[in-house]
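Give me the 3D structure for Aspartate carbamoyltransferase.
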Amino acid sequence: MRHLMSPLDFTVEELDQLLDLANDIEKNPNKYSHACDGKKLATLFYEPSTRTRLSFEAAMMNLGGNVLGFSSASSSSASKGESVSDTIKMISCYADICAMRHPKEGAPLVASTKSSIPVINAGDGGHQHPTQTITDLLTIRSLKGRLSNLTIGLCGDLKFGRTVHSLINALVRYENITFVLISPEELKIPDYIREDVLIQNNVTFKEVERLEEVMPELDLLYMTRVQRERFFNEEDYVRLKDRYILDMKKMSYAKEDMLVLHPLPRVNEISVEVDNDPRAAYFKQVQYGVYARMALILILLEIQVSEH
Ligand code: NCD
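Predicted structure for Aspartate carbamoyltransferase (308 residues):
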């Protein structure tokens, strides 16, 4: 049985197959509409989420399956003091697969060691968010036609943003990727990403504070929200939250085919005027997220859909 804790749990070849499957689902949704008949997905969300949880639920429903679960720690037995280990043993009796989001880093991993069903990490603290990464890879590959030879700007909260950590981990495995890391001093990527992932893999990268000056170089700009819930004090959050606002003026410095991605939710970091620019791909990314999760569910449940 397989779980998904980090994007590196899949080899590059396995990820390619997953993305191929997601593209086939996009083209032929009817072919998959009964693939999970009679199966259940549990969504165990100990931390708020709209997109990821509903995306998982929509994915399972599109496959003909059912969903059950909870959407906050306060509405689950966690509020009575139940451990993640006990919860997952119990859920294993109710469902065939589960997606878990938790504010504590490593909680889904602990759950996976006690589980008799596949566990998907749907975001653990500031650590990893592998299904967002699969979504991002699918979006990039589908819209750009490749996952190699790209200069990628990552902008905003690179310290606490788990989507960025997972995406860097995944992208260093492709050819000729250059990262431009754009953040205030206080929100730079953690040392373990800089040392153990970027430097270790000989990846070209630079760290800058100003977005304007690097715009013309980028093939892709991945914007992120400043992660209020991970700050230790409100003052720091308020000081940093509006440091980057992508607007049409900044977009005018960008390549004509640069893509703008954002895992969402957006707060102020992308001005709504950018939404109408053809380069804005963050709502398409949401749709790709459903196909990516459908493909992932099929692979972890080892369900193959034949042509007829
Ligand atoms: C992200 C997350 O939860 O880490 N959102 C998401 O899953 N779509 C990004 C964020 O919350 O800023």
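The first strand starts at residue 40 and ends at 45. Let me know if you want a second pass.
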